[in-house]
């Protein structure tokens, strides 16, 4: 086995002063030199690129995971989650649909009461991350109308109806009235318009 020799020669690069000062503080907190910290960051960026990943996106997704934890989400086995949804739907369909609708409204209200410029867009962005089991999640706003489309061959029939109820509750909390709802196993299509009272 031939070992690849790594050159110890150094090269100079230019960075913003505020960034270097912050990085220097981080290095001190960790008990490392600035040289070690900079090289570690370069190695991580190169490793991420070689894996076909984007380092900025990795950080954003980690932040969303932390946000999900703070907002009451938990990790669960997908098959178990679907099975429990099926049981709830079969045993108490009306109550299950109501609970999911209320959960959607509660989730949406976190955005309507926040300081984000476009609460619906922020909701869409986070929802796309939280529902990685959906192969397609489309939410578009045109004037006073909103279209939602979700596709996932992995959704059970019961889970599809429950998730549709969640989305309907969220849209209503954003001030929209559902005008069309087409739900079949693994497919959700919703149309809504802005309520006149909002």
Per CATH, the architecture of the largest domain is Alpha-Beta Complex
**Overall spatial form:** elongated
Count of domain modules: 2
Topology pattern, helix = H, strand = E: HHHHHHEEHEE
Biggest sheet strand line-up: 1-2-4-3
What fraction, in percent, of the residue positions are helical? Answer: 55-70%
Secondary structure tally: strands? 4
Q: For the record, what CATH class of the largest domain applies? A: Alpha Beta
Biggest sheet layout: 4 strands, antiparallel
Mean pLDDT score: 87
Strand content: 15-25%
Low-confidence stretches: none
CATH fold naming of the largest domain: H-NOX domain
Distance between the termini: 70 Å
- CATH superfamily name of the largest domain? H-NOX domain
Put simply, the count of helices is 7
Structural class: alpha+beta
Cα-atom radius of gyration: 23 Å
Describe the structure.
This protein has 198 residues and is of the alpha+beta class. It has two domains: 17-53; 75-194, H-NOX domain (Alpha-Beta Complex), CATH 3.90.1520. Helix content is 56%, strand content 16%. The chain is built from seven helices and four strands; from the N terminus they run ααααααββαββ. The chain has helices spanning 17-30, 34-50, 55-70, 78-91, 93-112, 119-130, 157-173, and strands spanning 136-142, 145-151, 176-184, 187-194. It has a four-stranded antiparallel sheet, with helices on one face. A hairpin with a 2-residue loop joins strand 3 (176-184) and strand 4. Helix 4 crosses helix 7 and helix 5 (93-112) runs parallel beside helix 7. The longest helix is centred in the middle third of the chain and has 20 residues, at 93-112. The chain is elongated, with a radius of gyration of 23 Å. The mean pLDDT is 87.
